[in-house]
Amino acid sequence: MIRFRTLAVAAFAALALPAVGADLKVMSFNVRTMKADDGADGWAKRRDLFADTIRQVDPDVIGTQELNKAQGDDTVARLPAYTWFGRDRHGGHDDEHMGIFYKKDRLKIIEQGDFWLSDTPDKVGSITWGNVMPRMVNWALFERIADHKRFYLLDTHFPYRDQDEDARTRSAREIAGWIAKLPAGVPVILTGDFNTGPGSQAHALLTEGLKDARLTAPTHDGPDGTFHAFTGQPVKRIDWILYRGVAPTWQRTITTSKNGHYPSDHFPIAADFTL
């Protein structure tokens, strides 16, 4: 059963600008938690670049991972056209969020909610499958203000350890089952850091009902890999945008940097769709 809950000048390197007139622009961005000791790559030193990266792409909606509340608030202070929502993985606002940002003049929320990736998905903060911290999905049913077209956007972050492959597979199965209960005629987009590659069982399960924009868009730019640990040299493609009921026109991996520094330890990805 689906339960609903209402609720300085930068030098940009190798940035692929968004397509003019794109119908729906979606971004997935692992923010990198501000609680880590990242030294020269700490949040206070990259938050302007983070906002500038989003500004260059100008997405309608963004699924983020590892977002702390202060990071979300910092971002909308710099980008007031956006707002964001979501509880953290413990059900409050003190830990990491799957925060979803959206343009207030382009989209409105019809319904929104969240569920946990566990044996008890409706239990806030629940942990099973060997996870060491709660894992969750944040979601909304959006309506485009201009023409009233609707779509679901789900955002998630899978566990990262090598021994978590079974938990990632179970998480994928849980999400696939949840999506299968949605109205068939309403498009669905899933963003996330899945901490596993496209050859995984998790990817195979999710792409039984969804498609991978990187693999299906007629045009794609940037490297396949997304995680680069602030080095700019990506090692694996663990961030995906999956979809059904829309048509991708362009997918890109965004490698924006300034003076050798990056807005996150992941490259964000973006996809343009015809809705």
TrEMBL record:
Domain Endonuclease/exonuclease/phosphatase: start-end pairs: 27-266
Point out the signal peptide segment: 1-21
Q: What Pfam families is this protein classified in?
A: Exo_endo_phos (PF03372)
What keywords were assigned to this record? Endonuclease, Hydrolase, Nuclease, Signal
SUPFAM superfamilies assigned: DNase I-like (SSF56219)
What GO molecular function annotations does the UniProt record carry, in alphabetical order? endonuclease activity
Query: Where does the sequence pass through the membrane?
Result: none
Which PANTHER family does the UniProt record give? CARBON CATABOLITE REPRESSOR PROTEIN 4, ENDONUCLEASE_EXONUCLEASE_PHOSPHATASE DOMAIN-CONTAINING PROTEIN
Name of protein: Endonuclease/exonuclease/phosphatase family protein
**Organism (species):** Luteibacter sahnii
